[in-house]
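Researcher: Hi, I'm a grad student and pretty new to this. My advisor asked me to get structures for two proteins we've been looking at. I'm not sure of the right format, so I'll just paste the first sequence and hope you can take it from there.
Model: That works fine. Here's the first sequence with its structure tokens right after it:
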Amino acid sequence: MTKYAAALLRALFAASVLASGASAQEALPDIDVGAATPLRASAPPPVAPAPSASAPGGAPAAAPPALSKTPAMVNVTTAKEIADTHEFDVARALERVAPGVIINDVTGNPFQPEVDFRGFVASPVSGTPIGLAVYQNGVRVNEAWGDTVNWDLIPSVAIDRTSIVTANPLFGLNAIGGAVVLDMKNGFTYHGFEADARGGSFGRRQGSLQYGIEKDGFATYVALEAAGDNGYRKFSGSQIERMYGDLGWRGDKAEVHATMQLAENRFGASGPAPLELVNIDPSSVYTTPQTTKNTLSQFGVNGAFTPAPNWKILADVYYRAFDQAHVDGNTTNFASCGGATLCDGNGNATIMPDFFGPSVPLSVIDRTWTSSRTVGGAAQIENTDKILGRPNTATFGVSYDHGWTNFNASEELGVLNPYNLTVAGLGIVNVDPAGDVAPVKLNAANSYLGVYARDQLELTDRLTVTAGVRYNYALISLYDHFSNQLNGDSKYTHVNPMVGATYKIAPNLAVYASYSESNRAPTPLELGCANPNHPCLIDNFLVSDPPLRQVVAHTIESGFRGDFKPASYLPESVGAWLPGRVDWSAGAFRTTSFNDILSVPSIVTGQGYFTNAGTTQRQGVETQLRYTDEKLSAYINYTLTDATFRSMVELGSPFNPYAIAYGAGSLLVTPGSHMPSVPKHRLKAGFDYALTNKWKVGADLVFVADNYLLGDEINAFGTLPSYATLNLRSSYQVTRNFQVYGLIDNVANTRPNSFGALFSTTAIPFLSFTNPRMVSIGPPIGFFAGAKVTF
């Protein structure tokens, strides 16, 4: 089915590609990647920000409760706020405006961001422990194999609004840090036509189309997006094609929607590079090719039915097909050792004859093919009958998701080019089939069942109490086609309670507090690679492993929120300049994770394993303030995230000089050590101002500080340099239907280092490195111009 969906996608994209000027081929490395084989309300969002109407399942839901009655911090970003950033991907739009959200540029490709919220991530990189669940119209889009989130598949122009939700049992498995909820547009919520085309730096060209219409109870919505660029680092070009469609019907007591989503994307990912190389050439890469091809076909049906006053039934079903082909050039531990055959990293002879000698820089090309299929559905009942004369909302639901994955991997011996560090394959596949690096053909199946209930009761006009519970059941099965080492079933269950309250101190001031629990079951990928004595090429090759324990997280948060009109508190002459409203909030949070799962490198180059790392804690404060009037919208928010280890634990860190001195390739991490790749300080500010009825200007600033390198869990190397990126934008409405705009990204050309790690300085024999740090460097200043047509 996927190849036919891809053909349909290419046909649908003809107009969009023409509008954007995107070419059919991008500057990717010349190497074969192989054949890549909950619930939404359709009513427009309220004027004031409110919690998302989505819940697991995808069917239209009742209107969301007032924000003042939600006992947790809720961050809402509207379609207009996303559009104002002019970002092609929703993840980068959230980084600019949403409190607490930053991006770790692990891959070096702007279309493959790793989203971090409160120290928990939703990443496209296999092998990254995931702590955020992502729901699109109620369907959980974390992939079945490794719980990864491929942000490139989500058409941002089709998003009605996003909400980042915590302490809510409706969003269940693996949402230990919260859930990112994406409510999509449909023909009832969006009317008209829009075409947008843009071009600029790095060979970027992109275009989007969206169209929505409603007539006689029926509605149609379709969105297309395409983009291509050459990348801002070597071998990092990309090609993106994606679409989303919704066909809806609405009657007096029912509403039904059928949705379709297709995507076919290719990337060249450059990843982090040694700091010494980056200082010479910021576009440097460290071993390549690194390419990925993602293909998606997703179909769903959801509906809502009102059988009686105060009752609503919601349900949905979906099918999701995801395929990924990945190519990764790496250094290797295979080497000439003076005998008749090559030796592995432990000095053991392999079956591969040594034709090369010690002067040839050997390397490898690792290839993986992942084919995942997921089916699922949910049913939910809502009741708004009063209890003892007081307003009450009760929700009961059940969700079930079943996924199955075919995973294949192989390794080809190659030679490293000393001029650009590209790996040239020699056609010799699986050098050491009897060792740890062996070909893999594995099937995995995972079944997730959730049963949940939530009740919100207004005890008084000021006090609202919320309580809920969710039962999670996960069954994960592995079937090894080459051996019986990985065969087996793993079961995980947990009951997650939640309780909270809000109290309205004044008409425009409320206080909230809540306690909640959540759990994360290990993924099939993590279960297949959890033995430190038999490490894996993460994601590529799997071996027999001891079981992992599930992560259980306890979260408490509390804070204040409110709004006011500045003009009411200022002299009339000053207040006349600020006629709008200020919305603000300030809160504190603490999430303690027991048996946290981390990805740990092995002493063997390029290999690693997953392990339970004891107790970790992420705590901090979130503050935000937003001003809005007819001409000006402005915001500023700050998040402090203090992520630390709370247990004494030994973790592998073979490239850390202190671990090498220790002699075992590992570090003894003590309580209080800061977790790497979790920036402590996150500050954002921005504005959009209408100089005239036609001319609008805007800017936004993101500041990040105190981020430790991956592999430096004892914090011996200090933090990465803090950075700030400033972006400017301006638009002019030439006519009612035609707009032109210009963008300048990263005005100060700061080249941020948002991600860093440690590496082996001796892995490439003809290069002499002295500094074990490697970093992912951000893009330089970029200039873009575009035009938008609307009807």
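Researcher: Oh nice, that was easy. Here's the second one.
Model: And its structure:
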Amino acid sequence: MKRFFHRLRPLSRSSGQSLNLMPLGWLLLFCCGVFMTGGISLLHGQWGAPAVAQSTNVQKQEDQVIRDFTLPKAPSEAPVYRPAPPVEEAPAQSDPESTPAPVTSTPAPAKAAAKPSSALKKAPASQYVLEFNRSPIVGNRLRLQGTYAETQLAFTRPRNWNLQSARALIRFQHSPALLASRSNLTVRVNGTSVGSTPLNRKQSQIGQILVEIPTNLIQDTNDIAIVAQQNVDSKCSNPADPALWTEVLPDSKLLFDYQPQPVPLDLSRFPYPFFDNLSLDPNRLAYVRPATMSETWLTAMGRFQAAMGRLADFRPLDTRFVKGVEDLEWNDRLVILGTPAEQPLLKSLKLPFAVSGNQIIDGAKNALPGDVGVLMLAATPKGGNPILVVTGNGAEGVSKAAQFLVQPKNRRIASGQAVLVDSLDDVSTPAARQWERAIPDANEFKLSALRGADQEPFQDTTVRGASAPLVELNFRALPDDHFTRGSSMELVYSYSPQVNPRTSAIEVLLDGVVVGGKRLTSDTGATRESVNVNLPENLITPTSKLAVAFRLSAREQGQCGVVTDQQLWGTVHANDTRFKLKRDQSVQLPDLKLLQVGYPFAAPQDLSGTAIVVPDSPSETELLTMLAFSERLGRLSQAESVKLDVYTAGSLPDNVRQSRNLVGVGTRDKFPFNEAFTTKQGFSLGSAFSRLWNQQKIQTLPDKGGVIKEVMSPWNGNRTLLALSGQQASGLNTVKDILNKDPWFFQVKGDTVLISANSQATSDFDPDAYQLEFLQQEPQRRIAKMNLLATTSRFLQDNWFLLPTGIVTVCLLLYGIVQLYIKRLEGEKP
């Protein structure tokens, strides 16, 4: 030891200063002692207090480890969905004497495609007929007017099609005044011409053209354009001449010959094939009702249906219940949700994880824990219908499995035919005013913060031509926005040279109403000019659309009304265009018109502020109505999760009743909230098929109508209660239909909607399919979050009649005070 300290004597540096290492030696000696003492204590198992900390750290690490289970043997082949095509009748043949010869396009030769397999050759081809009248924009005809006119229709190709051939059968009639030598009809698919025919029919006779479409032109998303070039004069035709017309008839159609391809089932492709956004038919979901319904099953069903509604967006989605596999129809996708005890059907299916004694077992024949969710894919014995199983050995496991599917960031990592969900990250709830499809909550933002029709951030956009299309985007206010004077838009734009300054302008429109504009003054063009436009406060609504129109005129007029205009262009600059809004947060409820955008039930957008309540023993119609409302909320919201809750009437917690917006579903005799129909004002459904409105009372026999009614919640003055009801199941079924069908849902308004159905209606677009009566009787309550100045201003706007009375009262009060003061001064004089 002395030798050791002797070596730590001061050393001389080159600078002449000494370095004292004595403190360093003591430090090394202390560390050696601690190390030796700790080692001896560890050998004797007496580590003391630090052992508790170590145990705690080990426990934390164990909590973070995901449990591993013994997986069953993977199947040699994945389950395959083999869709069977529906039987379609071949199109009727037209009279050859009254029909021109079919025109067949001859596309340029392409590289030979790979030869199909022998099995594919033997498989019979199926035919799908897509008629133009399936599109609501077609109506009775598509009219082409002017010397050059064009119309387009979009269509998709389903994912499981191996397309063999495609044809377009276009039926039309045209003006008898057209010159056949200078008038023709051309068909284009995805910008490529596939056929043409002269417009030479006499006396407006119906003609048709059958054109072959090369299969290599057909993509996932396509458009067919019909172009008419029309002239009534051999030299010059006036484009405004009413005799220049051709009509494409609604019975025109596309004919596809295809072979359905088998689809290997894999969760990495979810939601396909349970939802195909390219399908030409409505996607069909079939659920199996469990033997006993629990709150877990109801909530999981509601959340899953809301997630499917988000995926569907504007596309149709059909939902029904079945008892088993034998009840499935063509194009049905079966979803089985619940524990094996709730869904005995699971025992009869060939699944990746076996079911034994109402328990799901792993590869080691051990039952999985009840808090582990299980997702499995299967197919019916003949493969005609895919099956999605959302299950677990306990309620917590079923909830995890369903939640995994409704959260996009979770399901992205799924793969294979089965997934065990051990743990899930909790997705935070967005702010109540954070709506992805609405304008930002900030009062100042750029145009690039908004989204276009493709739901992508808006970017610089250029349009061309004298008839340039509108630069259009959604400008949806938040549902509880109240705008005041002073909102403005600073539009930054550029335009091309060679415009006519006298007749060219730029306009800004809100819902088709021009709110501002400016003349394009330079014939040499301009870059990043700006115009400040006032945005009227009464025109900005939760469904508003903003459009910028370039009215471009060429400097030189063309001959015969034909103008060369492709050199004319205009650009809107998204990153430079700015908005400044003046608004506060104020809304009046109840108001069913706000239900068209989901408010207040879709705030927050993960639906965590809403609870649906069904009767204790819900019928199939009541369950389908609950699913229809869940789906509608999904279509109207966008978030990273779904936190909608569904309860029965007897299990609704008091804290949920008092804190959330409530939706009651059920026929009148089982309706969970009698408070919705016991109000002193407004419409009510009573017992014995009675209807009450104010002081009137009637009884109907039978009452097959449905009722949608919104009132303020009796348990929370800032929340609402929505009633979806009817005296009979048929009435509740009409409510379900209104929720499912966009043309009718987007008509609801007032606080009460009375619905009656026409059983003779043949189409959802038939204006007589349903009759809606709108009532506004319930007293509205203003819910606002404003400062004192804004609150005072809003109060005076709503109660302006009090302003003259208040002014007179204040004047009289001031007059009295002044008189008292004058008398006091006179009394003080000597």
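Researcher: Is there anything I should tell my advisor about the second?
Model: You could mention this: Residues 1-65, 88-123 have pLDDT under 50 and may be disordered.
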